[in-house]
Structures are given as structure tokens and as C-alpha cells.
Amino acid sequence: MVRFCAICGRREDEVGTLIENLCSDCYRELKLSFPIPRELRIEECEECGAVKKGGIWEKGENVILKVVEDTLRKSLKIPRNVSLKVEPTLNEDELTVKLMVSAEGRTVVNEKVIKLRKVKRLCQRCARIARGQYSAIVQVRGKEGELSAKEREVLSEAFEIFNKKFSVDRRGTQVVDVEDVRGGVDVKFLSHQAAKFFASILKDRFGVLTKESYKLIGVDRSSGKRTFRLTISARMPKYKKGDIVEIGSEHVYVIDVAKDVIKGVRLSDQREISLRVNDLEKQAAKVRVCKLRKARVISLRDQVIAELLDESRGKVIEIPLRQIPLDVKEGDEVDILEVEGKTYVVTGLIKP
Ligand SMILES: [Zn+2]
Ligand SMILES: [Zn+2]
């Protein structure tokens, strides 16, 4: 039986298999003729590339394509069974809009090239940075006046971790300014959240002592909410994990640092002790920074002395058994350090 397109009346053997009783031209016309505009205007941040959608600035890979897709789907009220894809063209100012619908195992496509007009602006965040506005400041200070080279290293490591972990792709940079000041560095942040996160890295990873304070800076006229500036003072610690504190003839391996107390392991007998920072100052305790080396445990059989092979120096060392951490076994590779001519095993003392 010969079939005809229900709209244009052409014969199936002229126009190809009908879809839902229509030729593909009529089907396309019926299902995919949306008033796609010839030109679309988008606002793009000239600093960070964010694109405005509704009232919100969005960032990320292919953000323009996604924003155009969402905008078209919404404004043209495209039903769910029609797929809409926006693709780049060789021309940077043009995009291909592809509409597709499937029925009876076949797919009908409608394609149109539209012009893209980019209006360059500054997004909210970049505008605030440009104005030098910040809502939180972390004041990093050295333990003795200026930041030492070592302390600056700590700071740049903290920045590295911050940039990796604080989802930068969604929120963009949060650091407004890094300024050298007397005694250290001031880091200004857009949000309280970012400043707190940065301070927590300094505190948790590097034992930096932090203290937060808030100051009222104004009242938001539209919401009536009070706005506060957060200041976090971050003082580099005198003692940090892995240091050796020398008190008289005793050596204490620092395993944890709190505000005014340090926890350590007394290396002469592996006892865990707490020391007040104030007391340490009074006792004129010295801090020794020691390099760790590797050694292999040869024998623990003797009840008194352990034998270790110090591979890098090619010699065997003997250490009193009471100075060996309890979970060390024969054959283990362990961390050792040398201070004032004495060698200690410190493997596993700092809990991760
Ligand atoms: Zn037709
Ligand atoms: Zn921006």
C-alpha cells in the first residue's frame, strides 16, 4: 500500500520512510521548529571568564556552551524529549545549536548557527577584588620578628594546599591580596570561610598558633544584617612536630603542639610527656632540628641492646632497648636521628 505524508501529501517512495505518518521534512517542521534567535548576548567576566546566567556568575569548563544551552531550553520551552546541544564552531563568535528528536527508531535533526555577542564585564567577585575589598585577613607572623626562610616555605606550602583543596574552579580565587608587613605577611580573603580554611591548614599541618577575632564593620543596607571582618592571627610556632627539644641532658621528640603545651616523647626511655611552653622558656630549652636517616633493625634478641645497620654510613649502631619504640621489629626499616652524638629511633612516634 502506498502511504502519503499526512501534511504535505508526498508519496513515501519519493520522500523516504514516514515517521508517525509524516515525511522527515514535515516531522522536523512540526517537532523541531523553535524560534531560535539569530543572536544571543552573554555577559562574560573579562578577568576570570565566568559567565552570567540569571543573576549568578558561573565558571567551569565549557561554561559558555552550558549557559547558552540552559538559556535556550528555558526561553524556548523545549520539551524533555527533544535533545538540545550547543557546539562550538570554527568561528569564535558563532555556535551551532542542534535539536534532535527520535521516533520509531529514527532521529531527526535540526541545526542552526547563531551569533554569540559577548559583553565583557567584571563578575561580582572580580569587581570586589578590583576594589580591594576583603572580609577576612590572616596575619601570619614569624616566631622571632620577621618570617624566616623556613617559615616562608611553610607559608607557600600552605598556599599550595589551599589552592588544591579549596574548590577554586567553582568559586575562583579567594585571595584578594598578600602583603609583606612588619613581622610577617598579611593575607586578605574574600570570604570568612576561605580565611578559616587557610588558617586551619597552617594550624593542622604546621602547628601554627591561630586566634580568631571579629570586628563589626557595618550594616548591610538592603538586608539589615551586620557585617563583620574576621581577623585571624597566625603565629609561627617556636616548637613544631619533629623538633628535638633539649632540656639539660634530656632530648624530647615533639609529637604534637597546642597553644601553650607541647607533647613529646622523651627519647632516653620512650615515655610520652607534656611540657608547658612557659616552663620550657624558663629552663632555657633549646630546639634542635634534626635530619632523619634510615636504618635497618638487625637484632632485638639481646635483652638490653638493639643492633641497627645504618646503611648510608655503612656501620652498625647499638642502641639501648628501652629507647626503641615498642612496635619496632627485627628487619624493620626505621627512621633514626642523631643529636649531640646520640642516635635515637623515632619511627611511628608522630601519629598521622
Ligand atoms: Zn511532508
Ligand atoms: Zn570574574
TrEMBL record:
Which positions fall inside the Nmd3 N-terminal domain? Answer: 5-235
Q: Which InterPro entries match?
A: Nmd3 (IPR039768), Nmd3_N (IPR007064)
Pfam families xref list: NMD3
Gene Ontology terms for molecular function = ribosomal large subunit binding
GO cellular component labels: cytoplasm
Query: Could you tell me which PANTHER family the record lists for this protein?
Result: 60S RIBOSOMAL EXPORT PROTEIN NMD3 (PTHR12746:SF2), NONSENSE-MEDIATED MRNA DECAY PROTEIN 3 (PTHR12746)
Name of the protein? Nmd3 N-terminal domain-containing protein
